[in-house]
C-alpha cells in the first residue's frame, strides 16, 4: 500500500512511533491542530486509542523495520517522535531518523534515565517519564498549596 501524504513544501509532517496512551494522545492533539501526522504501531488494535476525529494516517508494522519507515515516507518527515514502550526500539528508530534521514526534530521517550547520554550524543531530544514525575512531585512537595489547587481542579 502506498501512503499518500498531502504534505506541501515547508509544512510539518510528523511521524509518531507507538500508538500507546502517550502516542495516541499526541497524535490526536497534532491532528486537532491541523498537522499532517502518521502513527505507526506493530499492534493493529492499538489504533483504537485514536479519537474518531483523528484525521491522520495509521500504519501497522514494526517501526524498527526500515521498509516500514520508508513506507511512512520518513524522508519527508520534519519530526519523528519515538514513544514505544521499548527503549531499544525508540533509540534505534531515533538514530535512523537522525543519522540516515537527517530529520530536523527527533524526540524519544526513554524509560531508563541512565541511557539519556546515548541519545544526547546523537542530538536526539528525550523525555523521561521517571525524571518528569520526580520533578513534578518535587514541585508539589515544595508548594503544598499547588496540590490543593490541583485537587480542586480535578473535582470541578
Ligand atoms: P504504551 O506502553 O501504552 O505507551 O504503548 C506502547 C506502544 O508501542 C504499544 O501499542 C506497542 O504495540 C507499540 N510498539 C512497541 N514496539 C514497537 C515497534 N517496534 N514498532 C511499532 N510499535 C511498537
User: Which sequence of strands runs across the widest sheet?
Assistant: 3-2-1-4-5-6
Task: Return Rg in Å.
Answer: 17 Å
Largest sheet: 6 strands, parallel
Bound molecules: adenosine monophosphate
The total tally of domains equals 1
H/I helix tally: 6
SSE class = alpha/beta
N- to C-terminal distance: 47 Å
Given as residue ranges, the uncertain stretches (5+ residues, pLDDT < 50) are: none
The chain-level mean pLDDT equals 89
The CATH homologous superfamily is named NAD(P)-binding Rossmann-like Domain
Task: Write the H/E string, N to C.
Answer: EHEEHEHEHEHH
CATH fold group? Rossmann fold
Percent range of helical residues: 40-55%
From the coordinates shown, what is the CATH architecture? 3-Layer(aba) Sandwich
Broad CATH class: Alpha Beta
Anisotropy-based shape: globular
Beta fraction: 15-25%
DSSP, total strands: 6
